[in-house]
Design goal:
The protein has a seven-stranded mixed sheet. It has helices spanning 2-69, 75-80, 191-198, 228-257, and strands at 91-96, 103-111, 114-123, 131-140, 158-165, 184-186, 202-209. It contains four helices and seven strands, in the order ααββββββαβα. The protein is elongated and about 85 Å long. α1 (2-69) packs antiparallel against α4. The mean pLDDT is 81. The chain has 258 residues and is α/β, with parallel strands linked by helices.
């Protein structure tokens, strides 16, 4: 009895050992197939996403070109626009009165490899209306963070023409984080919080002048850090990676079958 039972158990063990490699092969094949399909789908989706970004950027660039070709807005026209308007690209023609000489320094800016600040000044345009924030330009930072650059403000009434923009907020933090004293170093161009620092209401956009007679500072900010064509190139790269990946995995699968 014991011998028969032992023989039967040994036979079942042998049977399981014979089937195990087949099951392992099937499971391995399924895992490879699922992984291949998942990675291929991901690469294709990334390519499609870049194509969508290309189209969005292209439409926006065309809108900007149209805005740049239009006649400049007056200040009252700017203030009359809906509050949810994206002002970037519109042109503005104003006569300003620099009642305040206070300078704001937007931190962590880079221009031609140099780290520094974008300098701003808030000025009056018309009495009893919100003030306008003017971009004076880029200035390099001192090695010593405690030493802030000295910027000459606009001191006399001036006529300016330039383009408007809404600077994109830092996705990690939107807070102004204003430091004490003047010139005042800030970390984000949060206009609502800036109004409290200046004790003045502000127009909802910033003016980047075409020319400032009293300043020769560069104006490096552009509405697009990357053109639409680059998104198209990135999409092509993702699609090529997807094609190469599927060819490699297909070749390995055929090899395994043979």
């Amino acid at each position: 009895m014991n011998s028969s039972s032992s023989t039967k158990q040994s036979f079942n063990n042998n049977k399981r050992s014979i089937l195990t490699p087949q099951k392992v092969a099937i499971k391995s094949g399924l895992f490879v197939l699922i992984s291949t399909v998942s990675v291929f789908s991901l690469l294709v989706k990334l390519g499609m996403w870049q194509l969508e970004r290309y189209q969005e950027k292209l439409n926006w660039q065309q809108a900007l070109t149209l805005r740049q070709s239009q006649a400049p807005l007056s200040y009252t026209q700017l203030l009359a626009m809906p509050s949810d308007t994206l002002y970037t690209g519109f042109r503005l023609h104003v006569d300003i009165n620099p009642k305040s000489k206070k300078i704001l320094l937007l931190d962590n800016q880079v221009y031609q490899g140099q780290v520094g600040y974008l300098a701003y000044q808030a000025v009056e345009v018309l009495p009893h209306l919100p003030w306008l924030l003017i971009e004076l330009g880029f200035v390099a930072a001192n090695i010593n963070r405690q030493v802030l650059p000295s910027i000459n403000p606009i001191r006399v009434p001036t006529r300016l023409t330039g383009r408007l923009y809404n600077k994109q907020a830092n996705p990690m933090s939107r807070a102004l984080m204003a430091e004490k004293g003047w010139p005042k170093r800030i970390q984000n161009l949060n206009l609502k919080q800036l109004e409290k620092e200046l004790n003045q209401t502000l127009a909802p956009a910033v003016l980047q002048p075409d020319l400032l007679d009293t300043h020769t500072l560069p104006h490096p900010w552009q509405p697009f850090p990357m053109t639409a064509e680059k998104h198209k190139g990135y999409a092509l790269q993702w699609f090529v990676m997807a094609a190469v990946f599927i060819l490699i995995m297909g070749g390995l699968l055929l090899r395994k079958i043979k």
